[in-house]
Amino acid sequence: MKTILVLLMPILFGNVTVEALRCYACVGINSNAQCNQQEEYCFFQGDTCMTTVAQIMGVKTISKGCTTSLDCISASSNNINLGVLMGSQVSCCQTDLCNVNGSSVSGLNFLLLSLSFLISGLVLSL
Prior knowledge:
Elements: H1 2-13, E1 22-24, E2 26-29, H2 32-35, E3 39-41, E4 48-56, E5 59-67, H3 69-76, E6 80-81, E7 86-93, H4 104-125
Antiparallel strand pairs: 1-3, 2-5, 4-5, 4-7, 6-7
């Protein structure tokens, strides 16, 4: 009986595959292209890909990896943007390699900086 079970195990369990979420992974990299060179599987780390883009005095750093959806939502609720001085943007997604983009803070900083110049020009013209 044991011999039959041992022989049947590869047939019964051999086709079972566990597919884990794949995310891009990096810590404190300045270039999104460099950051997208390494992937990780989220077996035990979580069910969500997270991207954090921080910018201080114009210097941008990107970190990416696996996390839980709860941790990512918590981190993204602390997003801040103070123009060119400082900013932090966390984004969450849940499909394979979905955390490919890492430039959202720079675009937002440019928009806010442009808006501040426009408003100050309007105030000075009054």
